[in-house]
Amino acid sequence: MIELRDVQVTAWTPDPDGRERVVRLLGPVSLTLGEHRVAVVGANGSGKSTLARLLNGLVLPSAGTVTVDGLDTATRGADVRRRVGFVFTDPDAQVVMPTPLEDVALSLRRLGLDDAEREARARDALGRFGLGALADVPVAALSAGQRQLLAIAAVLATEPDVLVADEPTTLLDLGWRAHVDRLLASLPQQVVLVTHDLDAAVRAERLLVVDDGLVAYDGEPAPGIARYRDLVARRHEELLP
Questions:
Q1: Which residues contact 58 (CB under 8 A, 6 or more apart)?
Q2: Range 128-154 average pLDDT
Q3: Is the pTM of this model over 0.70?
């Protein structure tokens, strides 16, 4: 169970005159996330990626607490990250080894397996995601969709309880987007999906709409999508001369 209690995230930013001031990036937010599929939507800069990164301790709250199964991300970050895997928008941000086999094996190092068992488990993970035949090819030779599958495979090989995916299909073409969406929908793990793909968002059990650093909607996906469209339309009107 993921719980956020009175969470705020702030940062220092310079003013035009060179002085620094505190700006609010997110919050206050209080949430309990227990549903199997949770989607998060919002405009660029709304705070949705900050919210996603809070869930496994990549971002720590400036105030309030984030806990996963009772573990505080601020004090038990390593334990939290064993439970909550994270997939970035750009797979190149997390795929670091020369071949898929080496990359998945690297993610398994923290499990304390010997080399042979790590390789066997890495090959098994690649096979589950349709990458078995590509285990030893250079990562640079993979398509964008294959690299995103590799990033997901490396995270899931460690068997986390929760997967947080931050716009995992934004850089993909239509075919790969559909493939990754189907994959995420089929996982046994709890999935928190940050996305601009409203077709994927509406299939979740619960939808969060983030706007100006606040959760502007929390509930059933279909009315939430309508609320989000209204927010986008109003923001666009405000920008018009």
A1: 86
A2: 94
A3: yes
